[in-house]
């Protein structure tokens, strides 16, 4: 812990405990609590140590609890803090000795009992108690002071935060009794060696009894809380608590499930979901499977669908049950496509009725589609996958106004035509269904539906986006089929061309992103590359580079970049027009996104497997423009480009071999000279002193990489101009500040000199060798400083404490001002 | 109360309402779709159209070589295009007291009604309706008179001959009532009978009923009408829009509590959302121009064209097509563009406020100033020297049978680079294109109809709750091509009364009350007996005097003399 922060604590405590001063905002108090929580990890200071070092904390707790006018936010904070400090046995003992635990947690301990009505105070009380529940003493404190009753009462608190927190504390108590922390004691519940102590049995029984009573209650909120407690116990507690509770709740649970109250479907399913994940599932007397089946069969149709939708998402689920749930999930779609043969009559009627009702039709279909999507994500083997896919396509067609070949209740089609929700969800499902090989034979129909959506002028922008996402996926899986190219050139490209001219920029943007993704997905497909470049699509992409919207221009740059990559694989030529337009965007575009995209495109070209001779001529300009950009992200992307360039040049040196054949020059030196000529070294050094920290950090890491190679070369091999560069001044000033260190390194006016030079001579440095400059800069120290400076000021505990004090002081000043 | 339906066309209505001894004609739309049976009238000599073979029946029994020509696999009438008029036999048009016009598209048959029928009444319309209606009529007359035809085809209309003709001519109905276009003299005479009214202005008709126009939000000066007496209210809703376009928004609240609502002029393309169509229009236009082609937009010289120009004003720059010229060619192009800028009080609030800046309400003024939009009365003259391609041409007539558009069809039809974009919903684009086949140019159908759709009208009717709704028959059933689209029809709690051409509907409400005034001296003499709190009765003995549909109870001369018993001669 920073000793400076410690010195602030007494003032903070005085300020917070003073009821005349307004409390700081909740966020500051929460941050302060986080800092207290972190203390043991950071400085190995536990509650006891802190209390001994900082007695002001004891005074603070005492004065807040005894103050009649204390603010509810401060009391809540104090209760949480007390709990944190009592998290260790020693801290607990110290607080107990001072009588502060009873003062904070026993009912009637505070001098402002009315504050209990504040939900934030009750929540603080519960959180404080939760923090303490780390040791046996705390548990005894809870038991001895009858706090279990308070907790059970708070379980039904009107505040949802308080009631769920009360549940959490109760579960923690039950869990703690079975944990290893109690194993040393003879009181551990169910311990084989040690029989259950009567005190603990009474505690667990009290909680379990309350849970069972809640399930049997006629009051709906109590039942809900009982079910929440049950699901928490099942998911968080071990044996024997879990089995004990399950045995007791089984009968009321069966009653609730068979009662078929729609409002309880969700909490009941949460309980069963938790039960499925435990060994209870495999114990026949626990009837988990039976209960699940009863859930599916109980209640009205709506609950049955909700239940089925939840069952299909279960990871561990008996296969038979899952099949049953899937049949129910598929029912609405099958109903729409009149494939009702082996459906139970009763359920069929329910589905038809719900489909014909305005309120339930859409939600039922959405549930069905989402269920199929979930299953498709796990590649679940449906019985008849193509039929499921056909049903989804039929629904999508109905949504776009098609008339099905059979009669459909008019309300259904009225509801569905143009319904964006169903369209989006249906397209997501169609997207997910692309994972099944069985569907590949349906590709023409699928592309037909997708094309219809892409062509429909009334398709909402979000629907189009989904259609494009699905199309990318289907294009990817259908890439081996030769008829795909025909579809792309004859149907898809004309639809996309129109969309690139859409009035809505979102649509233009999504379309260009789609073209980028499709081109990437079909990389290496020479047929596609030919179609792309022989159609008018490529010229449309080029014209989109001048779109009025910055995001669209950026996406167009991406699309052109990807298209060029596919072209280059065939021709190894970079179209002149592309380079000109890209450079124009980098140098003139007023928005950052397109400029970033240009640098990324160059990086991607450079990374490509085919070298581009034409690229070499532009790299220098890209590095220079990108490095001098005002947008820090453009600079970062430029440094990423520099990284790739370094990687390629220094590893393969493809350029070095071209520029010199002199036998006495090493390939490394040639490569470094090449990088220097491209302006990469100037870029790195300039970026090192950039005003944006991430830029400096990236440049520093690249220079460190370079240093490992450059230190070994001859000083005269790669010499850099100091003058006329931004970095020159920085290096000069550092050199002047450290004369001893640099005297043996410098190269003055191109010739090696002895190191006995005066400062005035040093000012006249014109050139410096690369090895010297990377040594001179003390990059390791710079990197450490840069890493440390990440969010250092903003998140420091000291600044937090200063803020708290300042806010209190400002309030005082404001009050004075007001008077 | 009776409604005589002289037109079955849902968007070109012509109905006559007999109400309280007044005879009111509601709109007089002219059905121009009949012109689709005729050959186009080329402005410049067309070798293709002039060399078409004449039609002779297969067995040679019927020879109409001079009247009918075979073109692109179909038979067309080679004569000046004719139009289908509202029914003129159902009632004596000379008995019509007033004609209420709701918008400039619904008055195109006015000269046929007011001239040569004995009509002596008054026509009521708003100022923009009159002025723009006049422009549309002038344009129609100009289109016809610029290309006079020496002969008029009449033989083919003979019933015995018509049934032997190939489709679709043999299926054309009421061909004998089709008429050639009126003359400018008839137009001027008809329009001289128009009396201007402003929104919410109340006009008394013979003291019997009061009529008042309300903004309908569809076009400049477009109106719905309220026709009411003291105890009855009839609303006439025709061509209304709830979309935010250039006209003043629709006044819905005044339509509340109507006994009868006559509903016409809903959108003709209920499945086409105007926003989506506008997007399609721009995308297709942009694609064509980028590919070096020209765009032809057959349109009326007023209405949606203002919105299209406004949309393109923003779009062209954003699509980097700012240098593409727009040409608006019509005999009334200049007047139309200028009129739109001067009717500020008839525009939406946003446009009205521009006038006070001062700025022109429509951005086409700036397009004209910067030479991006040029307008010409015809393709002859300056246009031919200033014309450069690729370009966008807006010109009429949307039927493609007459007007400058015919020339552009002949000029650009052969190149697949060019595109024709249909934006007017009044004509089937396939029918319009029929005499130009085979056609290489791309055809795009983007009908922009801003009138109420079925969803909007259902909401409106729920809001204003009329007791009875009367509407054209097509609104009571799904479109024939989409029988499953029950969302594309009126579904009301009480089924609407449907009408078709020549229907006579007895409107389902009886007049039960009439207002009668008591003269003060008679009122003074009444002796009231209180029956219960707030209700008093008296026996009245007076003379009922009725004049100009106003009824007054006057004191009888002998009433001042004492009488043993009062007798009741009239009841108030």
TrEMBL record, chain A:
Coiled-coil zones: none
Subcellular location per the Swiss-Prot or TrEMBL entry: Cytoplasm
Family (UniProt): Belongs to the BRAT1 family.
Keywords tagged on the record: Cytoplasm
Entry protein name: BRCA1-associated ATM activator 1
Organism domain of life: Eukaryota
Organism: Triplophysa rosa (Cave loach)
InterPro entries assigned to the protein according to its UniProt record, in alphabetical order: ARM-like, ARM-type_fold, BRAT1
UniProt record, GO biological process: cell population proliferation; DNA damage response
A GO CC annotation given for this chain: cytoplasm
UniProtKB/TrEMBL annotation, chain B:
Keywords from the named record: Cytoplasm, Nucleus
Superkingdom of origin: Eukaryota
Localization terms from the record: Cytoplasm; Nucleus
Pfam family, any one: Lactamase_B_6
GO cellular component, one term: cytosol
Domain Beta-Casp: 305-433
Keyword Nucleus: yes
BP terms from Gene Ontology: negative regulation of transmembrane receptor protein serine/threonine kinase signaling pathway; regulation of cellular response to growth factor stimulus; RNA polymerase II transcription initiation surveillance; snRNA 3'-end processing
SUPFAM superfamilies on file: Metallo-hydrolase/oxidoreductase
Family indicated by similarity: Belongs to the metallo-beta-lactamase superfamily. RNA-metabolizing metallo-beta-lactamase-like family. INTS9 subfamily.
Name this polypeptide is given: Integrator complex subunit 9
Lineage: Eukaryota, Metazoa, Chordata, Craniata, Vertebrata
